[in-house]
Amino acid sequence: MADAVTHARFVGTDPASDEVVLMKILQVLRTLLLTPVGAHLTNESVCEIMQSCFRICFEMRLSELLRKSAEHTLVDMVQLLFSRIPQFKEEAKSFVGTNMKKAYNILWKNKRVQLKMRAGGMSESSKWKKQKRSPRTPRHTARSPSGQMEPNQSSTLSNNNLSGGVPFIEPGLSTSSLPASDSAASSISSPTTTDSGLDTGSKATSREDLSDLEQCSSSGNMAANASSLPNTEITSPDPQCEGRQVGPAQSVSVESIPEVLEDKDSVTEQSDTSSVHDMDYVNPRGVRFTQSTQRDGASLIPYGLPCLRELFRFLISLTNPHDRHNTDAMMHMGLQLLTVALEAAHIANYQSLLGLVKDELCRHLFQLLSVDRMNLYTSSIRVCFLLFESMRVHLKFQLEMYLKKLMDIITSENVKMPYEMKEMALEALVQLWRIPSFVTELYINYDCDFYCSNLFEDLTKLLSKNAFPVSGQLYTTHLLSLEALLTVIDSTEANCQDKVLSTGAQEQTDDTLAEGDAPNTDNTADLTRLTDTNGLTLPQTNNEPVCPPTSGHLMAEKMKLGRQDQGDNDAAEKKPSKKPHRFSSLLPNSQELLDIRTKKKLLITGTEQFNLKPKKGIQFLQEKGLLTTPMDNNQVAQWLRENPRLDKKMIGEFVSDRKNMELLDSFVNTFTFQGLRIDEALRLYLEAFRLPGEAPVIQRLLETFTDNWHKVNGSPFMTNDAGFALAYAVIMLNTDQHNHNVRKQNIPMTVEQFKKNLKGVNGNQDFDQDMLEDIYNAIKTEEIVMPDEQTGLVKENYVWSLLLHRGATPEGVFLLLPAGSYDHDLFSMTWGPTIAALSYVFDKSLDDNIVQKAITGFRKCAMIAAHYGFSDVFDNLIISLCKFTTLSSESVENLPSVFGGNIKAQTAAKTVFDLAHRHGNILREGWKNIMDSMLQLFRAELLPKAMVEVEDFLEPNGKISLQREETPSNRGESAVLSFVNWLTLSGAEQSGLRGPSTENQETKQAAILCIKQCDPEKLITESKFLQLESLQELMKALISVTPDEETYDEEDAAFCLEMLLRIVLENRDRVSCVWQTVRDHLCHLCVHANESCFLVERAVVGLLRLAIRLLRREDISSQ
Fold it and tell me: Domains of the chain, with CATH numbers?
């Protein structure tokens, strides 16, 4: 059925009607693949179906509706195919065979067809029109019993597939347009192409040439559809059918369609052309159904992983921005389908797919990050997220490069870079940061790796810096940076909460499970019944037709095949991680990580010194104990190979030094040359350092190399000197082929010249000529890149090859970690930048939501600091928040109105007191700031009455207020003066003195209400729950407000003294721990007083109050 639909032909009438037919074809193909019977299609059939949809999707001359329909069809198909991947098994590489070559060519031929169409579809059409007015020829279709085309037929279809677009519709030679007239048809058909090198490396300029090209591209037992699929084509009537045979079953207006020869074995079947053609059926509308038979009785094998592998490879090829034939639409479509595939599939379990991900896919995606087209940029970021969310364990250095590229985009000063690109890069970071354990894995795998960047530390600094707006105005990028920082805080805080509540939650869970056994059993039974209805076939009722599922995902759910395999694959994916060599265990302790980071800093310093003067760098590392003394050549050689930060030029100079011959031997021994051809080994060798320019030095380096290579490969040449000569010749060939200065002066060497130069060098004999030709082609095709010599794409290729090489070594091991690991270490690194960013955003923002987000961030930081006992963090946080309360910065006269009218200041005050109540145990220096704020509230008369009224023995009611009124004599004098002043004032000023305005009264009431909600008295009453160290710091802060030489406020000192006494009484059960300090303070107040004053009076009363309550305690009664 798939073969019939993809090879159907029909008469083209008008574009609208033709597109209706194409839409029907799409529907049939979609239904065929997305129903359970689709599982029995072969690899080739699936590729034909996919190719048919691609051809429509990429043909821009079709209507947008049809192209979008093909696009959605492709999405569903890719979704189904990759959802089924757990059901397939990885095959041996040698098992791909001819059938997969066919499927491979189907997809890749399709791409070449599209490329030719775009390059030459319209530009050279006028040439063809001049050659022949009507390029259409009468054609007939005949298939041999083996399904192959007859060799004596013309190559029209080949032309069309190589030069046209959608081969379903073929007015004349064109396969890419729906013609409205003869002129339109002839203008679109363009067998000439401006595109060379895609199929055979030569330009096709005629129908015959194209036929030859197509025949060359067909190989072995490839089926007819291998290079020209799908072959569903529309033919238009042509009255000029000169001398061409028309099949008897065909309508007069329907042309028969010859197809290109695709199998040389079918030559013997020419005589069967007419008979086979007679067996074809053509319905009244002109749709031909051509017979097809299986060759050699081969069995039809259902599609599997090979089909998906080639489809995956094809999708990746569409995303290559350096392929000039990939249009933006093609790249976007490729990215969209890759997104669908990655969302549906467990690709990491299949090495053949994983290899494509590591190399081509990641490389194309990173290149797309540099384009200025937002749709491609955003799509590539989306695909990158899916890759690193699920496969980062296999992509260590790819992830490092990706994050560095994002950092470059965020910090770019290029005025041409759109603001949206920076915004998207920050959003990408935020998304990655939200992956559980992602930032922890960054820290362990990169910051704690000797030869990787400090990714987590650098990104944290970048985000913190980016949260500070230069202009003072907050934009989305600043808020996204803050959100990324808060993501780390959020996850750490959640893990701390889990640890605190884990015991109770576990007990509660156990109780719930014990009570809910029976209902769970029923639920399981219900689930079982539901699952049983999902068989391979779609559910069908008596009178309802079977409808195809609405998406590929739903179809995969219906098919329910290989679910057990799915579980096995998941289990395989969760296999234990390999332990990196630098760690003693899979979960090293914090001290070990600290030692590694210290060692890493020393290595970086030593590397910098080596890059200036190698001997000095080696000496520094020996002094620090990182390299042994005397120098161990093997150890140094390994360091030179492993350290990517080393200057390649300095490595070359150091190892080639005549004094370091033993080191050079050790250095060469670090390479694995066994099984490599000499040019391959030399490429590996020369990419590890910069080859010096002096001839004696080059000779030393090459002699050591060839001796080693010759030895490990079983001495393939007559002498070592022959290997040296060949290695030198390879270097000269590389210079000849790729050095632009040499190419300007001389014509590049040919393979014959290369062979001639090496004639008789192999011990007076010749080298193997095939080997020399292979070496020549390898060097000509791909340059041996000398480090630091090239720029642009050549350098990118070199850097990428180094990345892949490092990823294949033990350095590429990526450690996956459980959530909550090393939160202590991460918070130690992030709290400073995060609190700084929070403070800035809180201060500058006017948006209530952002202010609330900042406050939430402060609270979470406080909770984490309390959990880990970080007193310095909590003090810093309290000090920062106290500044925002405005209590310490405003004068006492203005404080009620300013504080009462500032919602942000009130929020900060509430947060300060709430955090002090919750986490006062770890508060140390911050008590001083809180007490300063309390004093300001006392001076502004904003404290609750209970805090300013204290116990007294002389007052009738036993209470006295610390906020004293003026004495009567002073009050009378001041009244007279006030009256005189009032008489001299203007009316407005007089009204101002009558009392505070209504607005001021309202703001003062708001301030009083806020302070009441803060409940500052709770700090006193609950001080008995404070840890002793925190209690001592609180008392020290209160005692600091004492009379000094001349400047002090008596009421302030009295207020602090009363709070101190109340705290002592609240802590009378452990008063012995603080009594000495309190006694000394009271003694100081009483003994050093020059005259009787209110403060001395309160000190004496306080001492009496303490005596009444504490004299019964034997430990302090004597004091």
Answer: 2-293 (no CATH), 670-787 (1.10.1000.11), 869-964+996-1117 (no CATH)
